[in-house]
Amino acid sequence: QVQLEESGGGLVQAGGSLRLSCAASGRTVSSYFMGWFRPAPGKEREFVAGVWGDNGNRYYADSVKGRFTISRDNAKNTVYLQMNSLKPEDTAVYYCAASSSGYSRVPASYHSWGQGTQVTVSS
How would you write 48-104 as a 3-class SS string? Predict the structure, then answer.
């Protein structure tokens, strides 16, 4: 199994930027489809963004499209989430996760999760 650890969260004003990192150990992230999630009202966690192992196709929630960018550096075994034009409604704990089943927006499809990193956006 792969172990995941997020970092990079913090407090930022609306309109600001943060870059989250998800460092993997135990297995290489290039073996997995990697996703970022956050809690949402009425849901366990909502899909934010995801990327295939070859750093090819990327997927985003409509709420973050055009503002967030997911990327991965397989040499560093790390996945990133660049968050720009942050809004107060982006405030959440952000989790990265790994899936061996390919692209999915469903949390149950992911077998490995990090502990999360808090992002707080003030208005």
Answer: EEEECCCCCCEEECCCCCCCEEEEEECCCCEEEEEECCCCHHHCEEEEEEEECCCCC
In the DSSP assignment, the letter for residue 8 is: -
Q: Given a cut of 90, is residue 81 above it in pLDDT?
A: yes
With bands split at pLDDT 50, 70 and 90, how would you rate the model's confidence at 110? very high
Residue 106: HSE in the Cβ half-sphere, 13 Å Cα cutoff: 5
pLDDT at res. 74: 86
Residue 103, strand partner residues: none
Distance of CA 41 to the CA centre of its chain: 18
